[in-house]
Amino acid sequence: MNFIETMRNRYTTKKYDPSKKIENQKIQELKEVLHLSPSSINSQPWKFTFVSDKGIKQKLAKVSWLNTNKVIDCDTVVVFSRINNIDLFEEQIEQELQKGAVDYYKEFIKPQSEEQIRSWFDRQVYLALGIFLSACAEMGIDATPMEGVEPKNYDKLLNQNDYSTLMAVAIGYRDIEDFNQPSKNPKSRRDINKVIETI
């Protein structure tokens, strides 16, 4: 299957089969995918937490709004977090990035407000999210990106202080009765000519 067919067949899973588990090798590959994800100036202002422990998932499910059943029934919940501590981030890039990247940050990003800087961090995490969802589709793993969670409560449950939850992704394998799969609910997109322009 080529990538276009893969994207035609991927969808936001609404119902998981809790008896189906993702092979450990695939979980390790998904971790490596996130590790290799691109970010502006290679800033990597993020952390990704893989949660498969049933007890923790039960607690996360209670603070996941309409996503409760997905969190409980999926194999793993991957929490996407951005660094919240700007001082820590600046120490990190000073130690790990090339001078040109650090200079770019100091000239173009650092002069902005803390809110704007964190918004820049957020955008890097969303780049990783897109890569991750595409990788899941290519690997035959079903996924549900979820902004419908309570970030502060996720942070408490995961003991996060220097990082803040942005969203989570449930991953696993669909229930054969899932109403949202393309065979039951064909994928809907706006006309390609309304969203793609060629100049």
Give the gist of this structure.
The chain has one domain: 3-Layer(aba) Sandwich (NADH Oxidase). It starts with a helix and ends with a helix. It is an alpha+beta fold.
Main features:
single chain; 15% strand; alpha+beta; NADH Oxidase; 199 residues
Average pLDDT level: 98
Strand order of the largest sheet: 1-2-4-3
Work out the helicity level: 40-55%
In terms of structural class, how would the helical and strand content be classed?
A: alpha+beta
Query: Proportion of β residues?
Result: 5-15%
Q: Summarize the helix and strand pattern as letters.
A: HHEHHEHHHEHEH
Largest β-sheet summary? 4 strands, antiparallel
State the CATH topology. NADH Oxidase
Reading off the top of the CATH hierarchy, the class is best stated as Alpha Beta
CATH level-four homologous superfamily name: NADH Oxidase
Annotation, overall tally of beta strands: 4
Domain unit count: 1
Cα gyration radius (Å): 18 Å
Poorly predicted tracts of residues: none
Shape, please? globular
Q: Could you tell me how far the N terminus lies from the C terminus, measured between alpha carbons in angstroms?
A: 31 Å
Q: Based on the coordinates given, report the CATH architecture.
A: 3-Layer(aba) Sandwich
Number of helices, where a helix is a run of at least 4 consecutive DSSP H or I residues: 9
